[in-house]
Amino acid sequence: MDKQRMAERQGSKGLWRGIALVATAATLLLLAGFVYAVSDVMGLGGPRNTLLPPEQTPGQSERQELRITALGDSLTRGVGDANGRGYVNLVLEGLEEKLDVPVRLNNNLAVGGMRADELADKLESDSGYQYAIRQADLILLTIGGNDLFQFARYQEEAPSVEGALPEGEGALPQDSGTADTPSVGGVPGELSIEALGERIETALDRFRLVAERIHTLNPEARLIYVGLYNPFYDVPELRPASLLVQQWNNGVYTILQSYPDMQMVPAYDLFEATINSYLSGDRFHPNGAGYEQIAERIIQIIE
Known about the structure:
This protein is of the alpha/beta class. The chain has helices at residues 2-41, 74-77, 86-99, 116-125, 127-134, 145-153, 193-217, 241-256, 268-273, 275-278, 288-301; strands at residues 66-72, 103-108, 138-142, 183-184, 187-188, 222-226, 262-265. It has a 5-stranded parallel sheet. It has a two-stranded antiparallel sheet with strand order 4-5.
């Protein structure tokens, strides 16, 4: 009997010992879970994968601002547009809608009558031009029309310095030509096709200098150059000037190929195919519809 009671007592002790071990293990497990939970809430548990609020989701960086600087002659100034907007303002609006980013115009530094050599001088010495170029993500440029057509008009009047114009003749006045004496941007007189051809290489050298100085000031900016067109395409005697304008455009295209972020947008086909629809009353500059066509082409190639 004593042996039986002793065995029962020992069994009870083993049972309670087992229960105590299980309880202790459960307590330790619960304690570990509590510590992990606290550390997780306090951010002490190391890196973890969680879903962030939409405004903090990786990859959704703040919108970037597109800064534009406009340079060149009266086309970039918008001369001929009765609404005074030109292609530059249309490009600003179109890109902001297309890219869904804020678009800001640093400055429109275009000047009516400006030639490529004058622009090259500004880029070399004018701190305002230099600052506007350095701040730009995109540069819009028209230049060369005055170099070619003013040269052709003033070939007999030009002073000894090659390519210079008579004093005070930098800008183009309003149209005063007649059917018998076609005007060059409003300057009455004969347009010499021969003089136009002779001046192309000189003008291209000037353009090469413009491209080089822009690239030096801001090698990261993208430049869009609007090619030349023949505003006298509907004048039979002056239609051959289109071949020379195309020679200019080909030369400019070759120059721009030296720089990975410089491109040319052609415009000659617009004004040759439907010249009466897109020229203003001065018969030299685009009208509002013409500027719209130029702006659309620029917007199309910007991604």
